[in-house]
Amino acid sequence: MANSVKIVLISFILLLSKSYAQEEILGEESKYENYSLLNRDSTIDVKSMYKKKDEFKEKKKKQKKNVFYGIKTRRAFTKKGSGNRIQTELFFVLKKYQEPDQAVAEIFWFDLRTKKITSKPITDKLRPYALILHGPYKRYIGKLLVEEGQFYIGSKHGRWEVVDKNNILMEKTKYYKGWPKDSKMEYWDPETKLKIKEVLPIIDGEEHGRYVKFYKSGLPEVEGVYKHGQRIGIWLDFYDSKGQKKVEYKYSPDSANPEILKKWNPKGKETFSKYPDVKNKYGVKKNNPTGKKQGKKEEAIDEDDEIFDEMDREENETLDKTQPDSNLNQNKPTKEVIANPK
What we know:
Blueprint: H1 2-32, H2 53-56, E1 67-68, E2 71-80, E3 87-94, E4 109-111, E5 116-118, E6 130-132, E7 135-141, E8 144-152, E9 155-163, E10 169-176, E11 179-180, E12 184-187, E13 196-200, E14 202-203, E15 206-207, E16 209-214, E17 220-227, E18 230-238, E19 245-251, E20 259-264, E21 270-273, E22 277-279, E23 285-287, H3 303-322
């Protein structure tokens, strides 16, 4: 009897504990039922559970103005002409001078003296007036954009396009730091590609443009021009010594073999010339393009000769005017003439 009572009490206690535990579990679930994404009746704003996207996104870095390929520049422009034919060039120049790649054929820069863009060699005397082009370039005639491209430290880079007055594309060339992009380039060290050995210019699948070959020292060995697959014009061979010329020869369209024009020894002394120089009485060398000896019967008329003859006449007239006259008083003071009084 006592055992049965104990069993009943234990069963009753177990039932009470079980029901209490279920209530606790239901109570805990009720706390979170509004946050369940599976509850269809929930009106919770899911977006509020996540941080705003702007908090996760990194702030975009502002692109620096007038900075191209990591180099600072400043704006510049030129204008010439008038009316509808006015030509405008918009471009950028380096803020600080950087030495361009001397191996490149053409280096473009703005001359502070002439206010024009030029590609002539930058000498020590010209360097203070040279602003190297770097960055976008545009040329307009009136309102029509006729030429567009990029510069990299003075050399053409990327795609360049030229159109005519009817906006028809006339030329499109791709460059890589001054060289046509499709050019065949050979290096002294193929792995590092630091020193160029040879550049064969290729445009539209054929040799076209400036050819150059270098010594290992970096000095030029051979340079010349290809035009539609053929060598043309003046070519030069150099010594491996400060760019000293060795041989100058010329290719003609009707001949595959070049014609030697001049030769120099390693010291720079001219040893051969097809057109020997002739000195006039003023000691000025003048070229004789005909190669004929100038005799008494056949003399070439030269504009320089006429100029020198005119100088002789002016000099004689001046001597006649300044020659003292015996009838004049020699003690009479003379006036001093000062040229350019400023």
